[in-house]
Write a structure and sequence with these properties.
Low-confidence stretches: 918-929
Number of strands: 33
Shape: globular
Distance between the termini: 62 Å
Mean pLDDT: 92
Strand order of the largest sheet: 8-7-3-1-11-12-13
Largest sheet: 7 strands, mixed
Radius of gyration: 28 Å
Number of helices: 31
Structural class: alpha/beta
């Protein structure tokens, strides 16, 4: 059996699944294809030729290396293939993006054959994915007098790789498709339970929305061959929840344009829209593919004679339709006037926000990071030639307001800005390149990040990045065949790239499945850092963190930079005093509820939440920043007191040291470098040279929210409100209800304490509640299953040392075993407690799931439809979100508790000591300290 015949077997299997042959990344298989192509009489020659030309992945894949080498042989006349002329070989090289193809093109361009060199130079002029070694070769040849190198550099200095591309269409013709009503989470476009297939683009595409929807989209394309299908969130926001590159890839696969005839299943230029626009982090992902994201504003609040919103019986604003975008509606965009028009040319809405100069550049180039690389390449060429770079690209938008102070995020952006005139101060609205300090890649998007790195020809992490981590938490619950096939390959790639990896490809340290956000929170060792991570919950309590798609993560890893606007900020402060029986999670819920009461609309959406929460250590403050993803905020910043920040940094150092002790540091000593950086930051704070980050007193905010702690008098639950008559109100995080609302009658089928929203204190609360109930009743009986998943191994080790693990073990009917991890996801639950492996567990929805139709009460962040629990034929699944003590008590009771039952259960447990701006009391006994 050869690799080729194995490939044929795989093709037959895929054919039965309605799939085309899988794109080839294996260099050994391409080598076999080449041998069969050279053999004129080979029975497999014709198909081998097709696979070689049309089905071999570009970039730095092993397959691309073998392909590029053979194309070089054809161009030099060392090999002859009738179907691949030297000119066609050059064309194929031009579509391979970089890496091996760039090496070949440079070899040819700088070679002795003048005719070949000239042709190679012309192809080089169209390429942008050059790295330092490639640029050094060009610069060296130019200095040695090579005329082709000079010609190529002059083209780069003029950015002809961009200017010679066709401009975007003046008129974009559209036909609409309503994907759903209400907010559309990225789970609809790329379900978490199908995460294993994301790197297989054609296969993953089959999970978008539904098979029915896919057929309807195909029918629209047949009916309107001259139009692009625009996917719409009617009465909602498109792409809430996460960046989800796979979601945009799926939309592009079904509605976009092919990037290259020689690269299968990679499309670009999707068009997406929402009544309330596009979620900010998802909009970034749309830009990666050169797509268009529209804010339709087609439903508006109905107002009375006084201009006040008219409310329905439930107190929600009544909406009126300004214009229809029902499925099949024909529309068009005038890209010059930046207007959305009806088929007859009537102006419907201004869409200028979708066609800013940078976004138009992304559309023209086909992706945002083609522009990023292009700008870098132009700068290099101009500097090498000693000339001014041609003013081709839109200048970075620099907003500077004299006399106005800086918010915290403005300070961080100013400190990390790249290419900005020295001494210039930037305010919100500026759009700049910034240095990225910390990068995180998670395991269900990591394979796509690896693909993106290969496609942009990157082979090693940028030295600009202080630290990067590849997690294993999203696939931690079940070590099934899918995980076994994907995760070791991912960890090996990232480890070789220079990233600290959760699992060791060499088998020298024990696998760590700690939740990625917790690890990133630990390895962020400065409040001035910028963090980018492949997950919407990349929300650190130090520095400012942005959830990003796999392409942006790859770009940050490869270049150490990102390009983004400085968002406006909303300031959140607190007054009053928390009641002893309340948990900090209720402060989080109250912030959302009180903000909506104060402003009516969600002022957090698309902005930075600057939360003045300085008396809580990083672990606990993270509970707030983590939730800001569900508040639809762009990011969050914690304003900490000096002493608290020092405490958080010392905690981070200890956690990083544990990773070093495990053997996780790499040859570059990345982790030790982070400890050194933390020590330096602590010294700056202690000396007074650079205190903890704080905004200026005269900083300007979009809004200021004051949370009144006195008003929080009972536990609160975020409810998906699955039966709301207004579908746009379902599955949002805006319905926050007190526990008394349920009258102790809401049946709970499953409780879940876990995900990134919990920390060590939550695990100790579980243990203490069990101790309390055991003391009162003699034993504890569960009327519903309780799944407990600590977010990190550190927490479990500390619980064992402090004696809390014993009581958890006593009442557990299942305890994870790393020596024998589960090979299958649990399908049925008994009324016992399950101690699960550290990781995302139920929150991710790709492995473990509750039974269909269950009502789940969880500490997690996700209440999206189908994420934690799917609907059954008889009942809609519900994922309600609450604090740890409410979840534990509800699992024991099998229902939501009364306020009295709750107070009794937490009596004696010092849940939270939070009263900003007070310092931590010296005698505090709270488990949160």
């Amino acid at each position: 059996m050869s690799l080729y015949t194995d490939y044929l077997t795989e093709i037959e299997t895929r054919k039965g699944e309605g799939l085309h042959p899988k794109p080839i990344d294996d260099g050994a298989l391409v080598a076999e294809l080449i041998e069969q192509i050279k053999d004129e009489g080979n029975a497999y020659r014709e198909d081998s030729l097709k696979f070689f030309i049309y089905n071999t992945l570009p970039g730095t894949t092993p397959a691309a290396g073998v392909k590029a080498k053979f194309l070089k042989e054809i161009i030099l006349g060392e090999a002859k293939v009738a179907e691949i002329t030297p000119d066609f070989a050059f064309e194929l090289l031009s579509h391979m993006k970089g890496g091996p193809s760039m090496e070949v093109l440079l070899d040819l361009a700088l070679g002795a054959d003048a005719d070949i060199a000239a042709k190679a130079g012309e192809v080089l002029k169209t390429q942008v994915f050059l790295y330092d070694a490639d640029m050094a070769r060009l610069a060296g040849a130019y200095k040695a007098g090579n005329t082709v190198a000079k010609d190529v550099l002059e083209s780069y200095a003029k950015a002809e790789f961009f200017t010679k591309l066709p401009d975007i269409e003046e008129e974009v013709k559209l036909v609409t498709y309503i994907a759903a009503e209400g907010d559309i989470s990225t789970d609809l476009l790329s379900p978490g339970n199908q995460a294993h297939s994301r790197s297989d683009r054609e296969l993953h595409g089959k999970c978008m929305i539904s098979e029915t929807a896919q057929k309807e989209i195909e029918a629209l394309k047949l009916q309107h061959p001259d139009k692009r299908v625009m996917l719409i969130a009617e009465k909602g926001t498109m792409g809430v929840g996460s960046s989800r590159m796979s979601g945009v890839n799926n939309v592009a696969l079904w509605t976009g344009k092919p990037t290259s005839p020689y690269v299968p299943f990679v499309n670009y230029a999707p068009v997406v829209a929402g009544t309330n626009g596009i979620s900010p982090i998802f909009l970034t992902t749309v830009g990666v593919t050169g797509g268009i994201g529209l804010d339709l504003k087609n439903w508006v609040k109905k107002t009375d004679a006084d201009g006040k919103p008219v409310l329905n019986n439930e107190g929600n604003p009544v909406l009126e339709q300004k214009y229809s975008v029902a499925t099949g509606t024909v529309l068009k965009i005038d890209t010059k006037a930046k207007k959305l028009l009806s088929e007859d040319g009537e102006e419907l809405v201004d869409v200028s926000s979708a066609f800013t100069a940078p976004k138009v550049e992304f559309m023209k180039a086909g992706s945002s990071y083609a522009v990023v690389f292009g700008k870098k390449l132009q700068t290099f060429a101009a500097e090498t030639l000693g000339v001014e770079a041609a003013p081709v690209f839109a200048p970075s938008k620099e907003v500077s307001i004299e006399g106005q102070g800086l918010t915290a995020v403005e300070k961080i952006f100013n400190a990390n800005a790249v290419g900005v005139e020295k001494g210039k101060t930037l305010h919100a609205g500026s759009d700049v390149r910034v240095k990225v300090n910390i990068v995180g890649s998670q395991d269900t998007t990591g394979l796509m990040t690896a693909q993106e790195l290969e496609s942009m020809a990157a082979t090693v992490i940028s030295p600009v990045v202080d630290g990067a981590y590849q997690s294993g938490c999203h696939t931690a619950s079940v070590w099934d065949k899918k995980a076994q096939a994907n995760i070791p390959k991912l960890m090996s790639f990232m480890n070789n790239f220079g990233v600290v990896t959760a699992r060791d490809p060499k088998g020298e340290y024990h696998a760590m499945t700690d939740v990625i956000h917790k690890v990133l929170n630990d390895i962020t060792v400065s409040d001035w850092d910028i963090i980018v991570g492949g997950d919407s919950h990349t929300r650190m309590s130090k520095g400012v963190a942005f959830g990003a798609d796999s392409g942006t993560v790859a770009l940050a890893l490869a270049t150490g930079e990102a390009t983004m606007p400085i968002p406006e900020s909303v300031k959140v402060t607190f007054k009053g005093q928390m009641k002893d029986y309340m948990d900090f999670r209720d402060v989080v819920h109250a912030t959302q509820a009180q903000m909506l009461q104060q402003f009516g609309d969600n002022v957090f959406q698309g902005r930075i939440i600057e939360v003045h929460i300085g008396t809580l250590l990083a672990d606990q403050a993270f509970t707030f920043t983590d939730w800001t993803a569900e508040m639809k905020a762009k990011a969050s910043i914690c304003i900490s007191n000096d002493d608290v920040l020092i405490g958080s940094l010392e905690l981070a150092k200890s956690r990083i040291q544990v990773m070093i002790n495990k053997g996780m540091d790499n040859e570059a000593k990345t982790l030790q470098g982070l400890i050194d950086k933390a020590d330096k930051r602590i010294a700056e704070i202690q000396s007074g040279a650079k205190p903890a980050l704080k905004p200026d007193a005269n900083a300007k905010y979009f809004a200021e929210v004051v949370v009144d702690l006195d008003l929080i008098d009972e536990p609160m639950i975020a409810d998906p409100d699955v039966n709301n008559a207004d579908v746009s109100r379902r599955y949002t995080h805006d319905t926050i209800r007190p526990v008394s609302y349920y009258g102790a009658e809401k049946k709970v089928d499953l409780g879940f304490v876990g995900s990134c929203m919990v920390h060590k204190g939550d695990m100790k609360i579980v243990a203490q509640m069990l101790k309390n109930l055991e003391k009162e009743k003699g034993k504890v009986e569960f009327n519903a299953p309780l799944v407990v998943a600590a977010p990190t191994y550190n927490i479990i080790d500390e619980l064992k040392a402090e004696g809390d693990w014993d009581i958890l073990q006593k009442y557990s009917g299942f305890e994870f075993d790393d020596l024998f991890p589960k090979a299958e996801a649990r399908k049925e639950y008994e009324n016992i407690m399950y101690l699960e492996r550290p990781g995302c567990n139920l929150c991710m929805g790709n492995q473990e799931k509750a039974a269909k139709g269950d009502t789940v009460l969880a500490t997690s962040t996700r209440l999206f439809q189908g994420r934690v629990v799917e609907d059954s034929a008889e009942k809609k699944g519900e994922s309600l979100l609450a604090s740890t003590p409410v979840v534990v008590l509800s699992a024991i009771l099998g229902r939501t508790p009364t306020l009295d039952e709750y107070k009794k259960a937490v009596e004696g447990i010092d849940l939270t000591k939070f009263a900003p701006p007070l310092e931590k009391p010296a005698d505090a006994k709270s488990v949160h300290f």
